[in-house]
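Researcher: Quick sanity check before group meeting.
Model: Go ahead. Protein one:
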Amino acid sequence: MHKFLTNFSNKTIYFLLLLGSMQTVFAQESSSIDWLNFEQAVALQKKEGNLKKIFIDVYTDWCGWCKKMDKNTFQNPEVAAYMKQHFYMVKLDGEGKEPIVFRDQTFSFVPSGRNGYHELAANLLQGQLSYPTVVYLDENMNMLSPVPGYLTPEPFLKIASFFGNNIYKTTSWEDYSK
C-alpha cells in the first residue's frame, strides 16, 4: 500500500506541475500583444474592411518610461485582451530610420540634434516629441487623440475604452472621466 501511495503521490505531483506550467504558458500567450508595424496595420485595415481602430505606441529605445509601460501596462492580461479585441496594435520608433508611406506621403527620418526624429511620429504627436505617447486612430485612420506619458493599467484602460467602445462619439472626456 505504501508503494502505491508513493507512486500515486509522485504521479499526482507530476500531473499538477505539468498542469500548472501549461496554465502559465496559456496565460502568457493570451496576455501578449501581437505588435504590428505601421504598414501592417494599414494593410489589415484595408483587408478586413476597417473593423478595428489603430493604436500606436510611439517610443524610443532610450526611453525608460516606455520600457516600464511595456512591462507594467502592455503585459497586463486585461489590457492585452481588451486591446487585441478593439485595436490593431502598432509600435512606432519615434527615431526610426525607415521611411513609411501613408496616404500617398512618404515620412522619413530627420537628423536633428543628438538623435533626430521620424516625420510620421512628429506628425502623429502633433510636433510634441514626448515619449511615451500613445495615439488612437479611428477605423478610417483619422486622428482621435495622442495621449502623452506613462500610464498604469487602470487609467490606460479607461482611456482605451473611451475610444475603443466609441464613447467619445456621444460623451465628452470630462463627463466620462468623472
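Researcher: Fine. The other one?
Model: Protein two, sequence then structure:
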Amino acid sequence: MEKRSVIVEQKKGLRDLNNLILVGVLMAVGIVLRLLAGVINVGGFHPNFLIATYCLAILLVRPNFLESVIIGILSGVISQIGTSMAWIGIVSETIGAVVMFLLIFIPMHVGKLNLQPIVCTLLTTLISGFAFIGMAALVYVNPMSMAQFISMALTTLVTAALNCVIVQILVLPLRGILKKDE
C-alpha cells in the first residue's frame, strides 16, 4: 500500500492572501519609516524605506508583472507624502518596481551566497533614483545645475547602499519565518 502525501505548492504573487497581507504590512512599515526617516540618518542621508520595502516584497512574494506595477504605483502614491516634486515619484517608483520584477529572474549566486537581494536592491534604487532625477530635471528644475545634479546623484548612491543593507538584513529572517524559497 502506497503512502499518501500532501504536496503543498508555494503560491506566488498577490493572488495568495498571505502574500497580499505581507505586501500590505511591508508597505505600511515603509510609510511609517518614511515619516520617521529624518530621525534615521547616516551622514545626513537616510534610506528610502519605500523602495527597500517594495524590493523586499517583490523578492519574497514574486508577483507577476502587473502586480509589480501595482506595487510600484502604490509606492509612488505613498511617496507623495511630503514631496516638493509632485507626481514624479509615481513614475520613478513604478519604474523601480518593474526593474525589480525583471531582476528577480536572474540567478545571482556566488557559490552558496545569494547576492540577489543586494544586487537587485542596488540596481532598483539606482534606476528609480536616477529616473526621479531625470524627470525632476525635465519638469521642475530645467536647466538643472551640475551642483544640484551631483547632490541628487550622491543622495541616490548613498540611499542605494543603505537600502541594500536593510533588504539584506531583513530578507533572510523573513524568508525563514514565512518559509519562502529563494
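Researcher: One line on it for the slide.
Model: The chain has a mean pLDDT of 89.
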